[in-house]
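User: Hi! I'm working on a homework problem where we have to compare a predicted structure to a textbook description. Could you give me the structure for the chain below?
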Amino acid sequence: MFDRVWYSWGVSETTFVPELPQELWRAGKLELAHGVQQFLQLMRVASAGLGRYLAEIESRGSKDLYGYGTTLAWFADVAGLSQAEARPYVNQAIDLNPTRALDGREIPAFAPATAAAAADGAIGQERIKQILGILKEIPAEVSVEARERTEKTLVDLARDAGPSEVSELGSTLLGLLDPDGTEPKDPEPSQPRRELTVERRKDGFWKIKGLLDDELGARTAAALEAYAKPRPADEFGQADFRTKTERQGDAWAELLDLAIACPDQPGTNGYRTLIHVTVGLDELKTGIGKACLDYVGEMTAREARMAACDCLMLPVVLNAAGEPLDVGRLRRFVTPGQRRALNIRDGGCAFPGCHRRPKNCHAHHIHHWADGGRTDLRNLVLLCGFHHRLIHHGEWEVRMAADGLPEFIPPQYRDPLRSPRRNTLHRAAA
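Assistant: Happy to help. Predicted structure tokens:
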């Protein structure tokens, strides 16, 4: 079943190359298993032989032999590998085989017992790497005899055991060799590693990518989890059908709104963010069309109307020919005093059945300012982000009742009589 192949340059070693049946599908389960084992051993023996050649090239000097500065550079070129890919082969070859210094003095192998097992094909690359890693953790003051016994014990186990057993034995042996462990140090605390990039894609969406240290990652996850819980079913039994990623996206928007509205936020003084909106006069009034956001992005005119409810806005209104009609003054729509009054009056999102607290809400103009609506309490109502979008984009309507409190008119498909509804949850909690 095997072809015996003799090395043509006269060394005494032999290797056996198993024949691959031409019709492998006819092979029985034992033949398949034996074939895998034979080729596996062949690969391991070949890898050990390659290591001996690389160690010899390292001893003689690749510059003198081939004109390359290092064995690593030469082998990477010959093997068609990058130097990063070739480095493990060269490093392992030097660890397992004796080399010579410049003065001809022999440098013994770091792990001779491991090299012997590798040459027999008894252990492969991963176990060799594992054993070498354990041996390099042995303290320098440990005697040579103890180190050799440790290596032999690991190699004997690795011939028949798996990675977990070798790792467990390695930990036990290292504990015996160095029971006190490494002397603890009190290093200076390292600078937390935090990275974040925000990029605008060609389709108009924004991509956020980041890397957070363990502490900040845990805080971020906890904050998102707190705001990403499914909304309770409303009075009509309507459940929250958003996916987890969609709920987390909405949670991020709420957290950002909270940060922007903070009185200590630089440049905002407790107001919503400043936006520059360039929009046609007709689009602004009708909500149909597009607007340019902060000179780089794009939003619908309807979204611009919604954003303008509770922002600092610098409108640039254009005529049909694209000429600026008016570059308006900065308008502060909802003052801090009005916001506090809204928080007291509505107690949170005023939409029927919503539990959101004031800090999670926007101040919505019932009669939009672009249509002549005033910014006063009788024209303002607190709405969370979800219900704010619903009022702007859906068929729900909101109006101020005679008693000065907001009430909501459902779509006809929800209530044919369109009876006004109010949120009583916040008053019950108060």
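For your comparison, note the following. DSSP finds 15 helices and 16 strands in the chain. Residues 29-60 form the longest helix (32 residues). Good luck with the assignment!
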